[in-house]
Amino acid sequence: MAPEALTRTWTFLTAMASSTLWREGQAGDGREQELLQHVLKVAEKNPQSVMKTIDQYAQRSWLMNIGEDKGLILDQALTDRKPKAVLELGAYVGYSAVRISSQLDQPGATVISLEMSADNSNITRQVVAHAGLSDKVQVVEGILKDKVEEITRLLHELDAKTFDFVFLDHDKNFYLSDFLILKEHGLVGKGTVVFADNMKIPGSPLYREYVLKTNADDFDTVEHKTRFEYLRWLPDSVIISTCK
């Protein structure tokens, strides 16, 4: 294995072993702040350069972004739906917020990005600003159950009743419960596309059961087998469900 691949694998394992990753949303070794400084120093002020810079950084220090391979599947899902109102659960360092918002071409189209970590929220805002996309992304700090009213208000300010597209990439234990919160409050409805990342590693068994089995009739669902972010030797999948 090449030295870069060894380093990337090691930084992945150390992140997985860190209690701060699950509690605070960061690997615990400062890589997220280092990534921000690297982006501000190296990347040109456009979305493509920012994403390329983050992807290159992650080749030596693993990051839990959706990454390049699964990112292409996300790109296609966005092209197919052409959303105006997008909800992202789990911003991390802003990679997916940049990726999604850079493809929104409807007037007033916006990503509302919910991130539990104050540090990650701050990083995301700066990364998005460097990409020139602050007018298309609103970062909200907190967790969904505490921010439903704010999320609802922001959605209605977009002249929309439901989200066109929801991107799930936060704590996998909350995929189903947070989707049910959105459903209970009428924030998802017919035509809403729900894109769920990391459905094999680490996986979200309750959400998988809900969309593929117990409530399968409520969705048109496709699962794409792919590879884990920045570690091509690890299998992963994404599940894309359209609400009927």
What can you see in these coordinates?
With 244 residues, this protein is α/β, with parallel strands linked by helices. The protein has a single domain (66-243), classed as 3-Layer(aba) Sandwich (Rossmann fold), CATH 3.40.50. It is built from ten helices and seven strands. Strands 3-2-1-4-5-7-6 form a seven-stranded mixed sheet, with helices on both faces. Helix 9 (175-184) links the parallel strand 4 (165-168) and strand 5 (193-196). Helix 3 packs parallel to helix 7. It is globular. The protein starts with a helix and ends with a strand.
Model regions low in confidence, pLDDT < 50 over at least 5 residues: none
Helix content range: 40-55%
Average predicted local confidence, pLDDT: 96
- Bin the strand percentage: 15-25%
- Could you say what the CATH topology is called? Rossmann fold
Q: Which strand order spans the largest sheet, edge to edge or round the barrel? A: 3-2-1-4-5-7-6
Return the string of H and E elements.
Answer: HHHHHEHEHEHEHEHEE
Rounded radius of gyration (Å): 17 Å
| Count of β-strands | 7
Layout of strands and helices, then pairs:
Elements: H1 3-17, H2 19-24, H3 31-42, H4 47-58, H5 67-81, E1 85-89, H6 95-101, E2 110-115, H7 118-130, E3 137-141, H8 144-157, E4 165-168, H9 175-184, E5 193-196, H10 205-214, E6 219-228, E7 231-243
Parallel strand pairs: 1-2, 1-4, 2-3, 4-5
Antiparallel strand pairs: 5-7, 6-7
Helix pairs in contact: 3-4, 3-7, 5-6
